[in-house]
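Q: Sequence in, structure out?
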Amino acid sequence: MQKAFKVTLIPNRAQAVLINKTIGCARFVYNRFLTMRKELYSTEKKTLNYGGCSQVLTQLKKELEWLREVDKFALQNSLKNLETAYKNFFADLKKPKAKRRFGFPKFKKKQGFKQSYKTNLTNGNIQILKNYLKLPKLGWVRFHESQEITGNIINVTVTGTVTGKYIASILCETEISVHPHATENVGLDLGIKSYLVTSTNEVVDNPKHYRTQQRKLRKASKNLSRCQKDSSNRVKAKIKLLAFTNGLFIKEKTFCTNSLLVWFEKMLSFVSRTWLLVIWSRTTNSLKALWMLVGLCLLPCSNTKLDGTIELFRKLVDSIPHLKSVAAVGILILKSRI
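A: Exactly. Output:
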């Protein structure tokens, strides 16, 4: 099974410059060949496939020397992405208008939210040694070792964020172990001071991500407003503010951070692997219990025993009267996932 491992790169100044050059060259190749294909079709009613574009790219690299400074796989993958965009567009034309998902390919912008390029493994050009990642043209790049990377490397996608960080997504062919099915039952009490208390007297503290993030966001906003306009410190303060707002989702005056989502997924995974039958004790937290159960049932089948999930959901609904009004929606969600 293929699995992607995301790590944060720590490049030096020369490596960061080369990463930005590679991203820019990949964007240039995509936009140039999109323009070429559009002009060719408008004048001669013909088109270029991936093979034709690849031949033109070889001649273009002889004319533009700066295209030879970057990774060749990044440029080839840009052409493959353009070919995929055309295929998705024409395949969607055969579907009803309401079910179409892809439009005509658009030009990539320098100020776009996602700036990335992809490189492939060939003849050992990508390697991992402790907390160092070897990439074509870049050499050995240090990264934060936040998880163990296992399996055979297939490709690596390097992404530049709006906050100036670089994320590497390492796609590997690896074996994922299946967790054993849970057999024990438990009762959970969702509270405020303690987020979760089990019937076995296990207490899970409330991390309070909302208050922590709100405090940091308020401080970053004050620092930005106090900086002088057109100064270098204001640029730094703006980047620091983006670091908080980039991981902040605002909907109906409710704040939810990326750290809270990651923590919540870990909690669901822990509950699903440990216990089979889960019963909530408080009716005041019925809506929270409903969505926690729905999230529990949306986990991958390898982590949760989904046989009899609807029966489990109905048992919860019968035990909490407030859930009967939304029981039908939850059962439909569960039926669509099993």
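The CA atoms of residues 310 and 331 lie 6 Å apart.
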